[in-house]
Design a protein that fits this description.
It is a single chain. The protein is mainly beta. Helix content is 7%, strand content 44%. A 4-stranded antiparallel beta sheet has the order 1-2-7-6, with no helix packed on it. Strands 3-4-5 form a 3-stranded antiparallel beta sheet, with no helix packed on it. The longest helix is centred in the first third of the chain and has 6 residues, at 11-16.
Length: 142
Amino acid sequence: MLMPRLFGESLLDDLFDYPTRNYNYTYGTSDLMKTDIKDVDGGYELTMNLPGVKKEDVKAELKGGYLTISATTNSDKDEKDGNGKYIRRERYSGSFSRSFYIGEHVQMEDVKAKFEDGALKLAFPKEDAKPVVEENKYIAIE
């Protein structure tokens, strides 16, 4: 007997998979905030996937050497049968954030950000390696 696929892969998925359900997959957020960081000449390029998120729902903050990126998303999935009766209505609303330590030397004006095609791209400079000067300390002899 064929089972209707109203709620997931099959009707039994909702009944038997509840405690171990992967909600990220269920609600389509499994690719949200996946990040690639590339070492380029003189700095770093960070690319973060934000599928389905609007530019105005993304915020980037630099505080204490930490770059924090936060996003909010809302999703509605309505399905009706031919008579207009609801078979399933799902709504999802959530907020996400990730933080990266990029160094105390980086100022807000040093970070360049661009959002296009569901991806946030940020570029920021590397911390200059300061040469370690070995300082000799002597014990005073009386």
